[in-house]
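Changelog-adjacent note: as of this version, every example in the card shows the full chain rather than a window. The one below runs 345 residues end to end.
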Amino acid sequence: MNKYPDVINTEEQLEDLLSQPSAEAIEMFSRIDGDIIILGITGKIGPSLALMAKRACDGAGVSKKIYGVSMFRSDEQRKKLEGYGIETIQGNLLDMNFIQSLPKVKNVFFLAGRKFGSVDNLSLTWAVNSYLPALVVEHFKDSRIVAFSTGCVYPLVTVGSGGSLETDMPWPTGEYSQSCLGRERMFEYGSIQHNTPVALIRLNYSVETRYGVLVDIATKVKNGQEVDLTMGYFNVIWQGDSNDVVLRSLEYCESPAKILNITGPEILSVREVAQKFGKLFGVEPKLTGKEADTALLSNSGLAYSIFGRPRTPVDQVIKWIAYWINNGQELLGKPTHFEVRDGKY
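Full-length structure tokens:
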């Protein structure tokens, strides 16, 4: 039984929780060969994923180089990662010459992607989400590749369906989601062409105390803003749990590429979550609209059969977020736009 803190008081405590490897992850790194490279390391997930990999290697008593690749728009980002023991490489991943200069290590995590503001520059969205994967899978054709995708490649489904399965036909809505399916197709093509083992992670939605669907809802409730109920249901998974599964997916890369839905087991109600935050904040949520018959939902039964169920209860995460916001802690300011139903992010 996991012991969780009642509250999270600092970013250091949060980062420790997000990067705590499981015994299974430590064991995996004791037997898996090769160094590690994380492409697009400076997003919301990259730093804690890199630190978890480092801690798992240390726990296993193995020495692996871990590279982190990004544009690094601030020295602070870079120095923090280097403080973890990550070797940073700065450059533009859309530059073919830069891609070709990267060390050809055995284990690749692909985190690069573009979502927010995608409708403002659709050609760049397609370049990052579809063209870049083609460059990566060619350069790292002799590696294992774990690539982040999204549940947005699925159509909206009814709550009664239990969520989309990996065997369901993708039906992306809008150009952002279409470009994400393009990303998958490029990795699938490279996997088949070069017999490259690949795992595609359809993540839906990762959360922690500074960002995510739960933070979006909590912030609106706290500030007295209206919470739209139209996209009335959703899935989430604590980022520490998703990090653990993503790392362990290295051992399940296949050719053709293996697809894994990664999310929490519950189908959560926007209305009910808003009411829970209302009680914790001592306010009455302002709810507007009516739940549609469909929502963006995924079923992670396949992943649970491989890795087990997520360890962190969603009610615990809700309490952590309420305390974090009540105490005026920093948020990332990156809304998920989970309410969007037409794919225009």
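Structural remarks: DSSP finds twelve helices and 15 strands in the chain.
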